Amino acid sequence: MSQEIRNNRQLAEEIFLAGVDAVHPSKLMGRCLKRSEEGLIINGVLHRIKGKIYVAGAGKASGAMAEAAEEILGDMIAEGHVIVKYGYSKPLKKIKITEAGHPLPDHNGYIGTKKIVEIAKKAGEDDMFIFLVSGGGSSLLADYPEGASEKDMVKMNDLLVRCGASISEINIVRKHLSRIKGGQLARLVYPATLVNLIVSDVPGDSPAVIASGPAYPDDSTFAEAMGVVEKYNITEKMPESLLHHLKKGVRGEIPENPDASDLVFQRTFNVIVGNNRMALEAAAARAEKEGCDCIIDEDLLCFDVEAAAEYIVKKALSASESRKQEKPLCLLFGGETTVRVKGGGTGGRNQHLALLCARLLRRHPGITVLCGGTDGTDGPTEAAGAVIDSSTWRDAIMNRIDPQWYIENYDSFNFFREAGGLIITGPTFTNVMDLIVVICQK
Question: How many domains does the chain have?
């Protein structure tokens, strides 16, 4: 492998990490939450505090968000509790923390959620309830409807994340199998003021989708939730208790979640403090600092992983062929692809995407592609993603590693563990979807 290719792999990783660093909660929270003598300034708006301040949250970034909140608010916090993924804890003083399972909920998630509900019910009319939400919140904020069990919900979440549904579709189902999601946290907190501070991990940054919208009006219905499970053919596989609950909702025997007309939202504020675009712009700034021309692709990669690989490679080849300058070109893509897992291997959407790109680029030198999750975790693996170039496929075959077999068995993690190319960051304490960094150099 040439020194140039090695350097471009390193450059791609540095650009990726610059994007991730820009959306760390320690930087995001200080911009939107400030303490003053008159109260709290949240997103530029003064809130006068007459009563207590409670802080709770759920998501991969919520521990770091809570740490920043403690730095800013100090003794103004009366009580709090956040739920994070294992390994994402932070040393907190007044806010308690529970580590729990993700992407599949476990018993700790249910315990932590009960504690958040207990705190929410304490909040009175003069109080403020600050909720810190980020990607992963849908799994970590774990509960289940009456008549079901933890085991039922674990199985249901596994079916949802594997069936090929988009995150929006998955969360429509989750909202209707919960007593806290889909705006129902706002119902619990009312009449206290509810401030929902959000690190977005979804296209469009809709608070209705992030962590299944616990503090946002829900305009979806039980009928739509049933439509999702029918569309992806999981009705016969899902627990009977949960199917029964959805059917009752469709028949009108269970009330729909609160919508925008509900009084509980008169004292609710939703604020996006970080998103994918912020990470892309920081990554672009780093690329330009390193001497690259840079283009941020305006279309989010929120479609099937195979189509995404073709889209990325087509853009890279077109840009590479049309350029006459020797200056490297950096193409940046954001979003979150979907993958319908068919094999029994280990991997994640970013590693699978990188391996698909390696197949398409095997005869096209001069292009390096890094696919990574900003949360530092890609699927149930220790890697954030992987980096490839035109030599990846050829070198694997020369070393008697069959990349096509790993693609067919959805075993991208073990491919890159054998062939090299894993990007391992450890917990990043944030989550704003994925970043794909492409370096084109003739």
Answer: 2
228, part of any domain: no
Q: Distance between CA atoms of 413 and 196, rounded to whole angstroms?
A: 36
Please count the residues of the chain. 442
Contact (CB, 8 A) for 295 and 319:
yes
Q: Are 76 and 12 contained in the same domain?
A: no
204: left (phi over 0), alpha (psi -120 to 50) or beta: left
Tell whether 328 and 198 lie within a shared domain.
Answer: no
CATH number at residue 130: 3.40.50.10180
Pairing state between β 33-36 and 45-47: unpaired
Degrees, nearest 5: CA angle 118-63-173: 65
pLDDT in tens, 20-65: 999 999 999 999 999 998 999 999 999 999 999 999 999 999 999 9
Quick one: which H or E segment has residue 360?
helix 349-360
Domain of residue 355 covers 3-17+277-440
Question: Which strands, in side-by-side order, build the sheet including 193-199?
Answer: 95-100, 77-85, 53-58, 128-134, 193-199, 268-274
Q: Is residue 93 part of a domain?
A: yes
Query: Is residue 303 located within the same domain as residue 372?
Result: yes
Angle of CA points 7, 8, 14, to nearest 5°: 90
Shared domain for 201 and 348, answered yes or no, is no
Q: Over the range 185-217, which residues count as b (16 or more CB within 10 Å of their CB) and which as e?
A: bbbbbbebbbbbbbbbbbbebbbbbbbbbbbbb
- CA nearest neighbour of 354 among 401, 419, 400: 419
Residues of the chain with pLDDT below 50 are 1-2
Query: What CA–CA distance (Å, rounded) separates 355 from 309?
Result: 9
